[in-house]
Amino acid sequence: MDKDKTYIFHILDEIENIEKFLNNVSFESFIDDLKTAKAVERSLEIIGEAAKNLSDKFKKETEIVPWRDVGGLRDKIIHHYFDVDYKTVWDIIQNDLPKLKEILLKYK
């Protein structure tokens, strides 16, 4: 669980970074600001990589989280440089990250 706590810390830290990057930012402003978009992409990559490293035991305890999708997001961003779908990224940020944060805060 100690290793899991490290990965949980990194995931929560990157969620908080994304929240800071996007504080009072609309979708249109997000996609028009290359630095912010790239910073958010990087944070999502880190979240995905950390999620892949969580233990199977922890993933089983938190099976409500679609861990395969969380890790897969990282792969999609890394391997599809030219077709990042920012609408999907925005939807994930708005709808999925708050739920993930809420779950992981219990294990911090």
TrEMBL record:
GO MF annotation terms: hydrolase activity; nucleotide binding; RNA nuclease activity
Keywords: Hydrolase, Nuclease, Nucleotide-binding, Phosphoprotein, Toxin-antitoxin system
UniProt-listed Pfam families: HepT-like (PF01934)
Highest taxon above the source species: Bacteria
Family as reported in the entry's similarity comment: Belongs to the HepT RNase toxin family.
GO CC annotation terms, alphabetical: toxin-antitoxin complex
PANTHER family noted in UniProt: RNASE MJ1380-RELATED, UPF0331 PROTEIN MJ0127
Name of the protein: DUF86 domain-containing protein
Annotated organism of origin: Candidatus Nomurabacteria bacterium GW2011_GWB1_37_5
